[in-house]
Write a structure and sequence with these properties.
- The chain is an alpha/beta fold.
- It has a single domain, classed as TIM Barrel.
- The chain is 31% helix and 22% strand.
- The two termini are 31 Å apart.
- 55% of the residues are buried.
Length: 438
């Protein structure tokens, strides 16, 4: 079986490739030029489109098991494919938590049955994610866990955190950390600042994030472990990571589209879809995030896809759940707010959503090199559309971007050589051209 993507702009940051040409896929793998295309196959005209490695999201919430009314592996993977992602890493804050070998095996076996893309399970650092006792990390790694994290339940005990880091060093395992001083941010529901004061809401200061970023970096330097800071939202956090990298500490970090696309002013009107953790910050923080991306201080762009049922969001602001869905809006937000504004080149932006997360997680993917599995995303960078929550494929519709006009759309997502999303538009165009219809 073969598939030829013809005439597109091929952008592969892993190899430095950015040129117009054809991409041939044979038996689920990237094939080089001149390969035999005998047998069953298909040619799709992607002229005017951009062809990139399949996107990788290293920070999502799929809710299964325990909260299937919000999202499942099946619905989350469909939303991911619609957003151009061919691999996603779900966090362990399920019920029960992904804190042992059996739970990792459950996620992987369910993915084989229900998912159209690759699922990269993340195990918990502590049992039950309660921050008291180290989980069975070695067993989870043996079962297929790609990283560990206690997600939104950061470990307050510095000695325990150090021991976990030292243990994970034996596996060269990345530690994904939600950095928040829960005492300092206690009962906060949005960024602490002018807007929180005007709305009469309890604030979460940037210091609550910055302090824990600094602590975890210090511990990682002591333990000589790999540290990854999740969803950076503050200017101060960017600076702490910048200085740590200059000192040679093995730290990487990510941010999410909401932190370079929105400010805390989105909360006006007590908009619960704009309630997330970490919270939306100020315009100055947004600019610092963009600068961190441009400099390479921020290595990756993830979504922190956090689906919630209507009853979790359609309540008074203080009682609403934290989080926004993001798998289907991430790429357009990157194109609209980073690429089209000149903050990042298209190649640099794609790198932060492909080869960089693949390198951090040490998984295959993120490249279009010959012989690689054919995980490919086809993008129309000029397509204009308006986000409509009701049309999202995610089981939950709690998007902070509802009604926003964006540019850039995923035309097709290809996983292991098979089209798992889209392709209809390309086939319709081909059929119309063949029939001579204008």
């Amino acid at each position: 079986m073969w598939l030829l993507l013809k005439g597109g702009r091929i952008v592969d940051p892993a190899s430095g490739l950015d040129e117009t040409g054809d991409l041939l896929i044979v038996d689920g793998k990237i094939a080089g030029a001149g390969k035999d295309t005998d047998g069953a196959g298909e040619t799709l005209d992607v002229s005017g489109m951009v062809v990139v490695p399949g996107l990788i999201d290293m920070h999502v919430h799929l809710r299964e098991p325990g909260f299937e009314h919000k999202e499942t592996i099946a619905t989350g993977s469909r939303a991911a494919a619609a957003g151009g992602f061919t691999a996603i890493a779900p966090m362990p804050n399920t019920k029960p938590a992904i804190d042992n070998r059996a739970m990792v095996e459950f996620i992987l076996s369910t993915a084989v049955k229900d998912s159209d893309i690759r699922i990269l399970p993340v195990g918990a650092m502590t049992k039950g994610m309660d921050g008291k006792e180290m989980a069975e990390i070695g067993e989870m790694v043996a079962a297929g866990a790609t990283a560990v994290s206690d997600d939104a339940f950061p470990i307050a005990n510095s000695d325990l955190m150090r021991r976990i880091m030292e243990y994970c060093r034996m596996f060269d395992l990345p530690i994904l950390t939600h950095c928040e001083d829960k005492v300092l941010a206690a009962d906060g529901v949005m960024n602490e600042g002018v807007v929180s004061t005007l709305l009469g809401l309890r604030g979460m200061p940037c210091a609550a994030e910055e302090i824990m970023v600094a602590r975890n970096i210090t511990l990682a330097a002591m333990a000589r472990s790999r540290l990854h800071v999740q969803h950076v939202s503050c200017a101060g956090s960017v600076e702490v990571v910048r200085q740590a990298k200059r000192r040679g500490i093995n730290v990487t970090c990510e941010t999410c589209p909401q932190y370079f696309s929105l400010t805390d002013e989105a909360v006006y009107g007590y908009n619960t879809n704009a309630k997330m953790n970490p919270p939306l910050r100020t315009a100055a923080d947004v600019e610092a995030i963009k600068q961190g991306l441009a400099e390479g201080v921020i290595d990756a762009i993830a979504t922190d896809h956090a689906p919630h049922a209507p009853e979790d969001k359609e309540v008074e602001y203080n009682a609403a759940a934290f989080g926004t869905v993001g798998l289907e809006t991430a790429l357009p937000l990157v194109i609209t707010n980073l690429v089209d504004t000149g903050v990042l080149s298209l190649s640099d932006a794609i790198a932060k959503m492909t080869i960089n997360p693949a390198s951090i997680l040490k998984v295959e993917g993120g490249s279009l090199k010959e012989g690689a599995w054919a995980d490919v995303t086809v993008i129309d960078p000029l397509a204009d559309f308006t986000v409509k929550a009701s049309e999202l494929k995610s089981k939950s519709k709690n998007t902070a971007f509802d009604g926003m006009a964006l540019k850039g759309a995923v035309v097709a997502t290809i996983y292991n050589g098979s089209i798992v999303h889209g392709g209809e538009t390309l086939r319709e165009s081909k059929a119309r051209a063949t029939a001579g219809v204008k």
